[in-house]
Design brief:
84 residues; mainly beta; eight-stranded antiparallel beta barrel
């Protein structure tokens, strides 16, 4: 998989859904206290992302900027490391 600029953690504004896009083309999504609620693979083409969950469902989304992802009716924001 070609490296893309969207690898990293994406979080809803309320922090309830956290989706990590891994460099190996896999994702790990947590919901509330439920870690790894959804796992699967993804592909990014331009600003479009396609998901294939390990349970068989598919989804997609679009990166509207380098820091904002729209997916499944939700808006995710890139989580930046906190300064020390």
């Amino acid at each position: 998989m070609t490296q893309h600029p969207y690898v990293g953690m994406w979080v809803t504004a309320d922090g309830q859904i956290r989706q990590e896009l891994l460099a190996n083309g896999r994702y790990d999504e947590a919901r509330g206290a439920r870690r790894s609620a959804y796992l699967g693979r993804y592909e990014v083409r331009g600003s479009h992302i396609d998901y294939w969950d390990d349970t068989g469902f598919t989804a997609d989304g679009v990166f509207v900027s380098d820091d904002e992802l729209h997916h499944g009716g939700m808006v995710f924001f890139r989580e930046r490391p906190k300064a020390r």
